[in-house]
Amino acid sequence: MSDSPLAPVDPFTPAVRALDEPGTSAALRAAGPIVRAEAPAGGPVWIITEDALARRALSDERLVKDPAWAPLSWDRWSAGLEPTAAEQPSLTTLDGPAHTMLRRAHTPLLTARRVQGYADRIATLARELLTAEAPGPVDLMVEFTTRFPLAVICEVLGVPGERLDQAVAACRRLNGTDPAAFAAAMAAFSELAAAALASGGGTAVELRERTPEEIDDRQLHYLLFGLIFASQITTDAALGFLLARVLGDRPAGPDKIDDIVRDGLRRHPPAPFTLWRFTRTSVELGGVALPERAPVLVDIAGINTAPGAAGGPDLTFGAGAHFCVGAQLAQLELRAVAEVLAADFPDARLAVPYADLRRTDRGMQGSRLITLPVLLRG
User: Is the pTM of the predicted complex or chain greater than 0.85?
Assistant: First the structure.
């Protein structure tokens, strides 16, 4: 076994780049299949850059998602850690049989067949929100890309429509690191969850019926928060890149739109890295010895765009036991927006040259277009 090479670049430093400008992934990949960098919360982090090794790691039971296994020196707030699995069971912190049980409660609600039943309503929401935009140049990254996925997930869960503004405000409060703002946001999410459960008209009630008996109301509210926030933060970012591509390419036909959605998600995955995983014992990965409590990431964006990667399945929605349960819904939302643009806004175009569009890369917080000025009516 050998030491992992040091990363030649810092993948966590925020940067502004042209939309299609390469980021740090190529340099990380060139350094080796697993490289070491400085974690934002301090100390080393090991980043996997090679596809086969990544897929093995994502199925390795020695790598867990429970923040209880994070380095002891890490501060929860600076590291952006969720509560531990013991404090709050969730899909993103549980592992093993407990995760499997909770996942079984979620999966039937978001299958391809189930979400297809929402297709017409999702298209209507996209049409209504786009039609409500101003007739002149409008920046779709200001309101639409945030509001649309929240409108969809609130509809699916049964959150009353008049609470959409509350959901938007709660998600925006989570963008910072202020504990007080975080507490206010979580209180708002709890109210949204309670409203969904009280409405009786969405999948929130069904989730309550499917979860293990030991999950109490507070924990159930957190599970619903996870669905709401994850739906917003991931689809928000993906929508910006998709809209830029669609408005620059004007695809014709559903097959072309499907290709653009798939390619856009591959090139600009909503999460450029996996969420944190930690070794619960000493582990050997790719010939590198990792100590207990070592934080590990997979460079999803880099592996997706590595030479020769386009022909096989990508890692946009993960792999293994933690494959994203919302993958079908996210893809349906993206296709719906592209189809509504093509059908209802045939003259829509970018208000600036495509080459002028810029994205901000924020490490684990993802990549997002800064602005997307559009003339929806030509």
Answer: yes
